[in-house]
Design goal:
The protein has helices spanning about 5-15, 20, 25-65, 70-80, 85-110. By secondary structure, the chain is mainly α. It has one domain. The chain is elongated.
Length: about 120
């Protein structure tokens, strides 16, 4: 498999930064991997907090047999928009993915001896 294809597949389909790491750019690869992992952790923690808040909000109504429409409205109201860290992390993940994919492809092309456009 060509380096460009291998790097792009690893960074695009497995985890951002993995393609760089495998192609020899270990510091950059570890940086992208760490940044993406940290952002995923923030998103996971915030989503857990949101779900917990929703369950505490609608739990009593569920026990009393509340109607689905009012339960859905209460759930949406209790979720909020997430913390600033969640909102930043939600942008960091796709940016790391795109940067990792494009950079790994270009790095692989360079390793394969082809010019990059």
């Amino acid at each position: 498999m060509k380096n460009a294809t291998k790097g792009a597949l690893l960074s695009g389909l497995v985890f951002p930064g993995l393609g760089q790491y495998v192609l020899g750019e270990k510091k950059l690869g570890l940086g992208l991997i760490s940044l993406t992992a940290a952002a995923l952790a923030v998103v996971g923690i915030e989503l857990t907090r949101m779900v917990t808040t929703v369950l505490h909000t609608i739990g009593p109504a569920l026990e009393k047999g509340g109607d689905p429409a009012s339960l859905a409205q209460a759930a949406v109201r209790s979720m909020g928009g997430g913390s600033w860290a969640y909102q930043v992390a939600a942008w960091v993940i796709p940016v790391c993915w795109v940067v990792g994919l494009v950079h790994a492809w270009r790095l692989g092309q360079k390793r394969d001896g082809r010019k990059t456009p």
